[in-house]
């Protein structure tokens, strides 16, 4: 083998490596763009009391629910306080929220979030008492209790105050224990449905094709733009977990519709790479009138016996009609980069660019979906 042929071989190998890396970089694992049926979280909520606050709790005179909850809790503990006058400000009523992960077993600990619902000022140093957490079906799935960590503080004096974060909200790490499991046997399923996080017909069909190519048979079918139905083959019978593990590592190239997303509050514009615009002429300009008042003082000469000091108004008016701006023509099917370059050539800022994009969409020249947040 000559040196020339050896170098050509290296160059060919490097080219193939670059092309392979480029193609792989454009693909995404199936697990990153889909959700599998039954593998989901569940929201939990509960109502409880936080005690041990340093005078920053609810006012029992205004927060009646806090007073009634405190009285009811004391009665369950054998303390009769209904006929007495309660004036403590060390207790706060809170809402407790948590997320139950999929396949959580009894005894598993999960994090909970605490939020005051009364007029409490700070939950720092408080302790949440035993609080049942229920699901949408009204069943208790976890019980929470523990010291509240707010990560915030507030201090004030007679003339100034300072605060950091939100002192009326907190969190308890591993603060709840799962008491009830959700009965779902994934391994016994004969059919698994795959839900796309961004529904698209092309992506759904590509996922089904990738699964069929991996298994070697037509077990997957694209039902619609957001769902792929997959039969569990005999090789994975009673072992759907192994099938999902193998399937979610497959790579496909997701396809998305052309979309322009606009946030008018912040002036943020996000455009996809498939955005196209038909031939259109764009001109942008605003009339600006600036009026400046610079009054001057006129006074008589020194030692003069006549005249008086007066204020003479001086007004300067400037009109800017941005006549330097020109009409720009964007050719047909311009790309995203060409669109941005064309608008930047006009000196258009983000706010004006939003109005221009909306006008282009109204004219029918924008071949993309326009979404305003």
From TrEMBL:
Pfam families: FlgI. GO terms for biological process: bacterial-type flagellum-dependent cell motility. GO terms for cellular component: bacterial-type flagellum basal body, distal rod, P ring; outer membrane-bounded periplasmic space. It is found in: Bacterial flagellum basal body. It comes from the Bacteria. Keywords: Bacterial flagellum, Cell projection, Cilium, Flagellum, Periplasm, Signal. GO terms for molecular function: structural molecule activity. PANTHER family: FLAGELLAR P-RING PERIPLASMIC PROTEIN FLGI, FLAGELLAR P-RING PROTEIN. Assembles around the rod to form the L-ring and probably protects the motor/basal body from shearing forces during rotation. This is Flagellar P-ring protein. The gene is flgI.
């Amino acid at each position: 083998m000559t040196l020339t042929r050896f170098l050509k071989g290296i160059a060919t190998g490097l080219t193939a490596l670059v092309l392979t890396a480029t193609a792989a970089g454009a693909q995404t694992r199936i697990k990153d763009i889909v959700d599998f049926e039954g593998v989901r979280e569940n929201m939990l909520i509960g109502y409880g009391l936080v005690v041990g606050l340093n005078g920053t709790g609810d006012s029992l005179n205004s927060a009646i629910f806090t007073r009634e909850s405190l009285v009811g809790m004391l009665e369950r503990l054998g303390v009769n306080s209904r006929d007495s006058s309660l004036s403590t400000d060390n207790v706060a009523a809170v809402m407790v929220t948590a997320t139950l992960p999929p396949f959580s077993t009894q005894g598993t600990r999960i994090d909970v979030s605490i939020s005051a619902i009364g007029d409490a000022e700070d939950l720092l140093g408080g302790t949440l008492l035993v609080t049942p957490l229920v699901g949408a079906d009204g069943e208790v799935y976890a019980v929470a209790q523990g010291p509240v960590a707010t990560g915030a503080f507030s201090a004030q004096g007679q003339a100034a105050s300072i605060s950091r974060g939100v002192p009326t909200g907190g969190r308890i790490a591993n603060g709840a224990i799962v008491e009830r499991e959700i009965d779902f046997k994934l391994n016994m399923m004969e059919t698994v449905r795959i839900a796309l996080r961004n529904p698209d017909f092309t992506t759904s069909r590509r996922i089904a094709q990738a699964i069929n190519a991996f298994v070697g048979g037509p077990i997957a079918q694209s039902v619609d733009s957001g769902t792929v139905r997959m039969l569990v083959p005999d090789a994975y019978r009673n072992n759907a977990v192994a099938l999902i593990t193998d399937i979610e590592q497959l790579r496909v190239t997701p396809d998305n519709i052309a979309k322009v997303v606009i946030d008018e509050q912040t002036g943020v514009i996000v455009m996809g790479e498939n955005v196209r615009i038909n031939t259109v002429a764009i001109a942008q300009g605003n009339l600006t009138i600036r009026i400046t008042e610079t009054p001057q003082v006129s006074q008589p000469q020194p030692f003069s016996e006549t005249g008086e000091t007066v204020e003479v108004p001086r007004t300067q008016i400037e009109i800017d009609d941005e006549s330097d701006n020109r009409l720009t023509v964007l050719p047909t099917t311009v790309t995203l980069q060409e669109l941005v370059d064309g608008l930047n050539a006009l000196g258009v800022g983000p706010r004006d660019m939003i109005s221009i994009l909306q006008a282009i969409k109204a004219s029918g020249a924008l071949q993309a979906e326009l979404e305003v947040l």
